């Protein structure tokens, strides 16, 4: 597994770099533990899940961790590590926090919502289609330390993108998630979290763009 490499900038202290390095090493150690469990007991899923739960608890510096599996309309406990008692089955409804998080995750990445239609294309030539039909949700400006400093929207006569009205673009926010490892899992998750954290501001920008025409 390749080592994590950090680039020193004027906004980063030696302590911050040490913390990043330690976090990267902890993540690699946790991954190695899980891979050893899988290779050592490829047919014993219960043991593999138990090792994963224990590793997750250590990585997150918590006393308790659970792994649940979606089966129909319920979440079933497949592994647990820690002293806190947990139920073996949980209804997959928004009345439970854990289930609500799972439902929100399952709802993401399902493409364009039903009924959403692109706004009239104002660019030159034909409207982009297929894999080229990109829709920008928002742009995030960051400083050298990687901290967000500004949000702004884009316009189709500049980007040539497929534009949706504010109402439909806001619906797309519910389906946005970058959950793949490359090029950096931590960065992908951070960007996904930013769209949740700054949701009110993003909605305001999109509504203003639609009103401005």
Would you give an account of this structure?
This protein has 213 residues and is an alpha+beta fold. It has 2 domains: 14-107, no CATH class; 130-212, no CATH class. The protein contains 7 helices and 5 strands; from the N terminus they run ααβββαββαααα. The protein has helices spanning 14-40, 45-59, 97-107, 156-159, 166-173, 185-197, 199-212, and strands at 65-71, 74-81, 89-91, 139-142, 148-152. A 3-stranded antiparallel beta sheet has the order 1-2-3. It has a two-stranded antiparallel sheet with strand order 4-5. Strand 4 and strand 5 form a beta hairpin. Helix 5 (166-173) packs antiparallel against helix 7. The longest helix is centred in the N-terminal third of the chain and has 27 residues, at 14-40.
Secondary structure elements and pairings:
Layout: H1 14-40, H2 45-59, E1 65-71, E2 74-81, E3 89-91, H3 97-107, E4 139-142, E5 148-152, H4 156-159, H5 166-173, H6 185-197, H7 199-212
Antiparallel strand pairs: 1-2, 2-3, 4-5
Helix pairs in contact: 1-2, 5-7
